[in-house]
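Support request from a user on the community tier.

User writes: "When I paste my structure tokens into the form, the page sometimes reloads and wipes my input. The last time it worked, I copied everything first. Here is what I submitted, just in case something in the input itself triggers the reload:"
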């Protein structure tokens, strides 16, 4: 990928795509600081090499009205320096002319052109900048203006986080098949089943829980009662060998009101045994409806078993990280990906447009 370390940054005006898409509590407190701290290395590097840095990012949390305005004091504390706030894109050029330290533009998705990947909008955004750096791995599967169209205008480079994510995830994909275990749970079939498909010949075992297990059980003709299933699953499962000996699906369940809501004891025992003997573990997706304590047992046990195993362990996914935060310490994992959908797309072997634009696949 286009390497940032080779660039002379002195006095360069840098448009930096960052990932500050954090959940915020009712009291206005940032609930996941990990994502923000992961940005610090690249921002520090740029500042210490004399670059003039304007950051762009999106935020989805409704409680702050999808705006960074109220979060600026917390960003200051988390990053360790004052960051100025720029409300709109047209105000950027004036700021660059009288540069007064690093700044953040408010939610880039407030601009209509962003999600449309509008080249004209990207042109306005690029005004006055010398180069563009993408340090938001989690958005690399999106063809948005601040991810893709912008790279057609400015010389573009990968930030350190994008470099780290791609290197670590590529390593686990390419690691020896022997002793490699993929664990998939959670809900959204369209993002998860392609990962199972890609790993079935790359991993020793693929353990499946959550709604994805319901989808597979149903496709195999088993009774799932009123369990949650994904209506897109049957089509997505075409081409996956449901009888493969590598694919391990739950044998017993925690059922309530005719719904499978967690994996059962026998399954937990079987999954934990496989985890214990693994050399590499990739985990995405809770085993059950873990938000309710009654159905958290499977996810809790799997999280403990992975944390205790001596395998190289990689995890990712918004709800998976919340579950880990709740049950074990996140620092017991070797690599925690900031990418949810982007990580899954990468693990599924798809080409991510944001990475392609940085020269990753060439
Ligand atoms: P991640 O964000 O880690 O990728 P997902 O968003 O795919 O995970 O899925 C997490 C959600 O799946 C959780 O809200 C959890 O309650 C739900 N879930 C898991 N198993 C079940 C189940 N058996 N029935 C209903 N919901 C489930
Ligand atoms: Mg989720």
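"...and here is what came back when it finally went through:"
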């Amino acid at each position: 990928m286009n390497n940032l370390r080779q660039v002379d940054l002195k006095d360069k005006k840098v448009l930096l795509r960052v990932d500050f898409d954090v959940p915020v509590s009712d009291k206005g407190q940032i609930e996941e600081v990990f994502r923000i701290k992961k940005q610090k290395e690249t921002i520090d590097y740029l500042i210490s090499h004399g670059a003039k840095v304007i950051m762009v990012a999106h935020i989805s949390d409704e409680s702050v009205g999808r705006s960074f305005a109220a979060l600026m004091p917390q960003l200051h504390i988390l990053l360790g320096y004052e960051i100025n706030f720029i409300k709109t894109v047209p105000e950027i050029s004036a700021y660059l002319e009288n540069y007064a330290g690093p700044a953040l533009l408010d939610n880039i998705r407030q601009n209509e052109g962003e999600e449309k990947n509008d080249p004209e909008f990207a042109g306005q955004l690029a005004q006055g900048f010398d180069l563009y750096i993408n340090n938001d791995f989690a958005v690399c599967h999106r063809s948005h203006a601040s991810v893709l169209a912008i790279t057609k205008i400015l010389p573009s480079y990968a930030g350190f986080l994008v470099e780290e994510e791609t290197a670590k995830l590529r390593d686990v994909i390419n690691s020896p098949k022997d002793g490699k275990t993929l664990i998939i749970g959670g809900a959204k079939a369209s993002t998860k089943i392609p990962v199972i498909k890609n790993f079935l010949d790359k991993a020793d075992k693929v353990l499946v829980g959550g709604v994805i297990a319901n989808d597979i059980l149903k496709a195999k003709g088993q009774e799932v009662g009123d369990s949650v299933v994904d209506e897109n699953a049957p089509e997505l499962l075409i081409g996956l060998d449901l009888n493969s000996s590598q694919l391990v699906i739950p044998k017993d369940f925690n059922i309530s009101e005719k719904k499978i809501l967690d994996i059962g004891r026998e399954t937990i025992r079987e999954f934990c045994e496989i985890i214990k003997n693994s050399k590499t573990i990739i985990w995405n997706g809770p085993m059950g409806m873990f938000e309710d304590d009654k159905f958290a047992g499977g996810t809790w046990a799997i999280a403990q078993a992975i944390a205790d195993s001596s395998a190289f362990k990689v995890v990712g996914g918004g709800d998976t990280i919340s579950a880990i935060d709740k049950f074990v310490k996140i620092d017991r994992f070797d690599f925690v990906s900031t990418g949810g959908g982007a990580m899954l797309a990468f693990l599924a072997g798809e080409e991510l447009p944001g990475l392609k634009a940085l020269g990753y696949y060439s």
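Agent notes: The reload is a front-end session timeout and is unrelated to the input. The chain has two domains: 4-163, 175-347. The two ends are 8 Å apart (CA to CA). Escalated to web team.
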